[in-house]
Amino acid sequence: MIIVKKLKEAVDFLKKGGVIIYPTETAYGLGCDSTNQEALDLIFKIKQRPQAKTLPLIAGSLAMVKKWVILNKQEEILAKKYWPGALTLVLKNKKEVGLSKSVVAKDNTVAIRISSNKIARTLAQRLGRPIVSTSANISGAKEIYSVTDLKKSFKKLSTDCIYTVDGGVLKRRAPSTVARIRNGKIEVLRQGGLKIT
Length: 197
Fold this sequence. Notes:
Elements: E1 2-4, H1 7-15, E2 19-23, E3 28-31, H2 37-47, E4 57-59, H3 62-68, E5 69-70, H4 73-82, E6 87-93, E7 109-114, H5 118-127, E8 131-132, E9 134-135, H6 147-153, E10 162-165, E11 177-182, E12 185-190
Parallel strand pairs: 1-10, 2-10, 4-7, 6-11
Antiparallel strand pairs: 2-3, 3-9, 4-8, 5-6, 6-7, 11-12
Helix pairs in contact: 1-5
């Protein structure tokens, strides 16, 4: 595992199809270019997670979100109220934009948010498209909040297959809340640390 502090190195690695570990507003996340299926396959392998489960995304801005998914008026109001923040919205994918199959559900929806963590947002902004954001742990294990714990958890990984952006020790927070608008009403699919009012 290579520890980096310069975001340019991490973005260059993403552009080459690499996988990174980076801080978010909840815990450390595993990420890659959301259009690169080979990189996504590596994340599933690292997490030991079934590929039938799609992975969520982090975007750098609302403009970026609108480029990749469809927001209706009600969804946009909800997004503007809680973003940047720990709300993941399930939105309709724009099929023509080229997101990988591992981030698009069978009903053609994508789970996406704008993180309140500046590093996470900046990575997506500099890459120019959303990045994958799944918890940096083995599937079913606890979330990780420090680089020290990351090293213990991923000590068997090859040093050339993953970059880690050191964001320090993160505050222990619950995962993001996952919600969608259905029939004009807010439906919470996973209650995280954020409560929608």
